[in-house]
């Protein structure tokens, strides 16, 4: 069989194929950028307009009246969200943004002492995580060059467990690492890292931006102390979507480092007392009033995850990315396109990262060919076929277009510089 015929057979066997109709797809384009921004779920759009209608109908009383009162809207999402990360519902809160939630978690957990002052991160992490970590070091009167330790990468794309283990010394107070590295797609071994950290008395947290909604997690059972994430990638919550945080129940006694009135016990919140009475669960680590219009689409999207289950999502994702990387090896390696995502299924997330010196201009050529990729400086093309709405035949079509671009060198008519938004 040709690859396209094989892809069509896989599409015929795809148990998730019907969910493609649940999304608004870009007309005439092959969308491979769901790891940056998921496409719009129709149920998410419906949930958003329900909030708009509730505002129109109830005005201020929308906080307590209507089908989905706003005052407890976030709490109503927690059980579904918890399934995506293997947590208990009361350990999860849909709130804030990913960076705000990092600030909340570090302000709560990073309490340096003379014996333990190191905040451990990694040199490949997304810049916002590093900015947040640096700010907490400085706020405590410490110098980043002395106490902000970065796990080094041997190849510029991945992190080894050995390097992480070596960095987890007795001076480390908190470690914050990504679950999946945003450039290469490497999936870290959360269970082993957590065990190593806890053996040495270290608090461990993860940024799940590139894994939530793509791979299953088991955070509670593993004992991860905290985690943060965004919901606009694989969870399809929309641009600027409200993020989320997880904090293991054994830490729920801790006062939030950044207190705000929506972290109050809900029965006490409108007492308007200046004495903070924290919520007894992860809700304590909220700060301000929920952004309802950015929150509502998550509700509709989570309905889809409840129906399908994260295990089925992961199974199809691995099939899609396996097909993609096999075709890359067969058709694109001769052009110097290098697959830098780890090979083993247990070591990779939901996207495939291709390295090439001309990556920026290749991405521009792909867009001209009606393929939506993602560029990450200095030399990475990220491609993310999404289980809910990408077909196997689309993966084949995308690689065929990329092969033609490389054969005909049409990318050379573009500059090899990123656009303002890459």
From TrEMBL:
Binding site for pyridoxal 5'-phosphate: 98-99, 126-129, 207, 210, 232, 261, 289
This protein's pathway: Amino-acid degradation; L-kynurenine degradation; L-alanine and anthranilate from L-kynurenine: step 1/1; Cofactor biosynthesis; NAD(+) biosynthesis; quinolinate from L-kynurenine: step 2/3
Catalytic activity: 3-hydroxy-L-kynurenine + H2O = 3-hydroxyanthranilate + L-alanine + H(+); L-kynurenine + H2O = anthranilate + L-alanine + H(+)
Cofactor: pyridoxal 5'-phosphate
Domain Aminotransferase class I/classII large: 51-215
Origin superkingdom: Bacteria
Gene3D superfamilies referenced in this protein's UniProt entry, alphabetically: Aspartate Aminotransferase, domain 1, Type I PLP-dependent aspartate aminotransferase-like (Major domain)
EC id: 3.7.1.3
Molecular function per GO: kynureninase activity; pyridoxal phosphate binding
GO biological process: anthranilate metabolic process; L-kynurenine catabolic process; L-tryptophan catabolic process to kynurenine; NAD+ biosynthetic process; quinolinate biosynthetic process
Keywords, ordered alphabetically: Hydrolase, Pyridine nucleotide biosynthesis, Pyridoxal phosphate
Subunit structure comment from the entry: Homodimer.
Functional note: Catalyzes the cleavage of L-kynurenine (L-Kyn) and L-3-hydroxykynurenine (L-3OHKyn) into anthranilic acid (AA) and 3-hydroxyanthranilic acid (3-OHAA), respectively.
Family: Belongs to the kynureninase family.
PANTHER family, per database record: KYNURENINASE (PTHR14084)
Name of protein: Kynureninase
Source organism of this protein record: Paenisporosarcina cavernae
Lineage per the UniProt record: Bacteria, Bacillati, Bacillota, Bacilli, Bacillales
């Amino acid at each position: 069989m040709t690859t396209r015929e094989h892809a069509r057979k896989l599409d015929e066997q795809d148990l998730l194929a019907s969910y493609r109709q649940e999304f608004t797809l870009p007309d005439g384009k092959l969308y491979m950028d769901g790891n940056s921004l998921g496409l719009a779920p129709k149920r998410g759009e419906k949930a958003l307009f329900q909030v708009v209608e509730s505002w129109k109908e109830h005005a201020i009383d929308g906080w307590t009246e209507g089908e989905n009162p706003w005052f407890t809207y976030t709490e109503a999402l927690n059980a579904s969200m918890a399934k995506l990360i293997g947590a208990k519902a009361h350990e999860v809160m849909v709130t804030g943004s990913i960076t705000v939630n990092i600030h909340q978690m570090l302000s709560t957990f990073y309490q340096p002492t003379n014996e333990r002052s190191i905040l451990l991160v990694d040199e490949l992490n997304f810049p916002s995580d590093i900015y947040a970590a640096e700010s907490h070091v400085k706020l405590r009167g410490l110098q980043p060059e002395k106490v902000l330790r970065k796990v080094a990468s041997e190849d510029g794309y991945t992190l080894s467990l050995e390097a992480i283990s070596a960095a987890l010394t007795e001076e480390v107070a908190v470690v914050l690492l990504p679950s999946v590295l945003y450039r290469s797609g490497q999936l870290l071994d959360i269970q082993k890292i957590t065990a190593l950290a806890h053996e040495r008395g270290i608090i461990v947290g993860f940024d799940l931006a590139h894994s939530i909604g793509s791979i299953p997690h088991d955070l509670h059972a593993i004992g991860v102390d905290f985690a943060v994430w965004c919901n606009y990638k694989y969870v399809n919550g929309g641009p600027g979507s409200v993020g989320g945080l997880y904090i293991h129940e054994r830490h729920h006694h801790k006062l939030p480092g950044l207190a705000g009135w929506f972290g109050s016990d809900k029965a006490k919140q409108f007492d308007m007392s200046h004495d903070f009475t924290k919520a007894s669960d992860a809700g304590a680590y909220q700060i301000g009033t929920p952004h309802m219009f950015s929150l509502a689409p998550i509700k509709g999207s989570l309905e889809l995850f409840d129906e399908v289950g994260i295990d089925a999502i992961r199974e199809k994702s691995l099939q899609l990315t396996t097909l993609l990387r096999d075709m890359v090896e067969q058709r694109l390696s001769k052009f110097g396109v290098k697959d830098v995502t780890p090979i083993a299924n247990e070591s990779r997330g939901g996207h495939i990262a291709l390295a090439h010196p001309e990556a920026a201009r290749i991405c521009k050529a792909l867009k001209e060919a009606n393929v939506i990729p993602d560029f990450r400086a200095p030399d990475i093309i990220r491609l993310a076929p999404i289980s809910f709405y990408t077909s196997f035949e689309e993966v084949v079509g995308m690689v065929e277009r990329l092969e033609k671009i490389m054969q005909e060198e049409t990318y050379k008519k573009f500059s090899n510089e990123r656009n303002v938004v890459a």
